[in-house]
Target: LuxR family two component transcriptional regulator
Amino acid sequence: MIRVVLCDDHAVVRRGIRDTLAEAVDIQVVGEASGYAEVRDLLRKTPCDVLVLDLNMPGRGGMEVLTSLTEAGATVKVLVVSMYPEDQYALRCLRAGAKGYLSKAGDPEELVRGVRTVAQGRNYVTPEVAQMLVDSLAKPAQESLHAALSERELQTVVKIASGKRLSDIAEELMLSPKTVSVYRTRALEKLNLGNNAELTVYAIRNGLV
Model:
């Protein structure tokens, strides 16, 4: 039996994933968490084989959860299931230690296959991500500037380019407006941009929004 823990801040999403996995006789959801602190404590107390992890969570996001698990030498296999586009986040997650990456908009059957695959210690990615991996190995020097952004910096860029104000972004990420402003400043510096208008143009040209 494959033991699975779900980590997503939306209860409705967790229920949908749980119901999908419940149809597989060899998979059992043994716990659920809505954020970093909960999943950290849950993994300490509950033996599991696979963590199905969302990226966009308040406070410390999914990438930070993934990084902390990798640094701690955790044996749980991580399958990231996110709303973010594969071409912008999949490689980042795999490099950070995830065993697989799937879109929330994908086929539910693909989720079951993904859990089974990563539970066996193998990587699970879509053909599109597999091609991106091949391309990144063949052309490592052509990496985009935004590859150097942290998870929060990239989230801030995407949200600003989507027309959201810093106060709205701060509320969504459960951060102070000052902290979000720091992320914006760092992102502008790393991308060699001067203002939000240039940032928005960059985001559109590079498929971030």
